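We now fix the convention by which a protein and its fold are recorded. The integers have meaning only within a learned vocabulary of local backbone shapes. The record below shows the convention in full.
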Amino acid sequence: MLTVAVKETGPVEQRLASAFEAAHPGVSVRLLETAALPPPAGEAVAADVWWGADAFAMAAAAGDGRLAPLPPAAPPSPHARWLPVERIHPVLAFNVDSVSRGAAPRDVRVLFHPLWRGRLLLPDPAGSALGRALVGWAMDAERVRTGDETAGVDWLRRLDASVVAYVPEREIMRALAAGRGTVAVADLRDAARARADGLPVDYVALEGGPPPITRGMAMLPEADTALAGAFMALAAGEPGRSLLVAEYRLPADGAGGEGRSGGDGRAGAEAGEGREGGAGVAEAPDGGAEPSWAREARQRLPVAPIRVDTVAAHLDRWLGRWRVEARGRGAPGTMNRHREE
């Protein structure tokens, strides 16, 4: 048996497990849904493989020895102890009944303007990879720019002034469609699916904002090396990539999606031009068919650098500062105004 601890048990996870079992007769795959992945240091999880933690969590777990070196059968990776599998790509989503495409902000800093006060939905950093990425990116970029991480807290506080609610990441598009806010920072996968499902939402590329990060896969020290490596190869290759795209999830590219050139180190610095794809199918680099929304995300949406290891080392503390010093403190008289979701 191969036990795979996952962040979610969705169609991709279930179909990949079935594909692995078909390719390895006599081996069963157990999917173990785990709320905290990787779990806190010192807390054991009876699994062979971790799948779905964001790059910051993976880097932290690799740094304190919770992850084994990648097995020989795993695909090449820019990291010694974990493999990028899926990309989280932030976009600016908007309710089409309230905001036109031309008026939709393409730089997160535009959301500081009083025009957007009480109109912004954000993924809750307490429980979402995208929310964590936003906090980590802003804190690190502003610290680099000014030499003082308090500048990052100030940046997050200014953004908080426009927030009407912090929402669980997977629920943010339905909240936007229902009119709880008029704009939202969202994962491309959720925005593209919501638009395809006919909800009154659309999205634009963020030319200034948090860059893409990856979700990864890693092997635990006591795992069956051969089986774990074979599972990783299936997830990062085929049919794993096709399964991801079919569910509006972006496969990671060869660079892992972090730390590539672009931007000037400022939180919200422009990093180039981007646009979204419409209907249609394009040819993928490996010769397979790829929906144009995925192709556009891979080729055209802007990518800015993020220092994953640095953010990972400080993220828990920075999230604490955001919770105490920024959340609900963005404007006079707004202390604790955000309802817990």
